[in-house]
Amino acid sequence: MRIVPIRPAWLQLAAVFGGFLMGPYAALRLSASLAPGSDLTQTVAVFAFALIFVGGTLLWMGLGIAAVLIRTLLGLLRGRLPAWPARASERAVPPGYGAYVVLGTGFGLLVGIIAGLATALTVPSAVVVWTLMGTGYGVALWMAARHGYLTFLEPE
Q: Residue 80 domain-assigned?
């Protein structure tokens, strides 16, 4: 598990809202410029990029909890106690945030195929553009999660 400094609440809030809103907005702008008359492409792009954020967050939570449980149990079986952040100014970031990149690439590929079939764009060019956009969005979310700006939900 990565240990990162606790980020200010306003930065975390900005990362969550920015991550959730900017991906679909960028997808809408890209589809409006590449396929101006295709409502299908614009609609699919907005929902797909929203699903990258929501689905990636849910997968991260599930994979993170499972990984922490497995590592803790294996550590206890080996006679080691789990390591927790030593200071109150630090927070542990569970693994699994790579789900953002996987979903970004997958949904970008899907939107590219749909855009290539539903518009005058060629399928290979649409797939390349949308896959790069989805992967870039996934990497941006991955970096935000990795460095503690997107926080892992904790029950309190």
A: yes
For residue 132, is it within any domain?
A: yes
What's the gap between Cα 44 and its chain centre? Answer: 18
Q: Which domain holds residue 91?
A: 2-146
64-92 per-position pLDDT tens digit: 888 888 888 888 888 887 666 667 778 87
First to last CA, the chain: 20
Question: DSSP secondary structure string, 3-49?
Answer: EEEPPPHHHHHHHHHHHHHHHHHHHHHHHHHHSTT-HHHHHHHHHHH
Domain count, the chain: 1
The answer to whether residue 156 is domain-embedded is no
Phi–psi pair at 25, nearest 5 degrees: -65, -45
For residue 39, tell me if it sits in a domain. yes
* pLDDT tens digits, one per residue of 28-56: 999 999 888 889 999 999 999 999 999 99
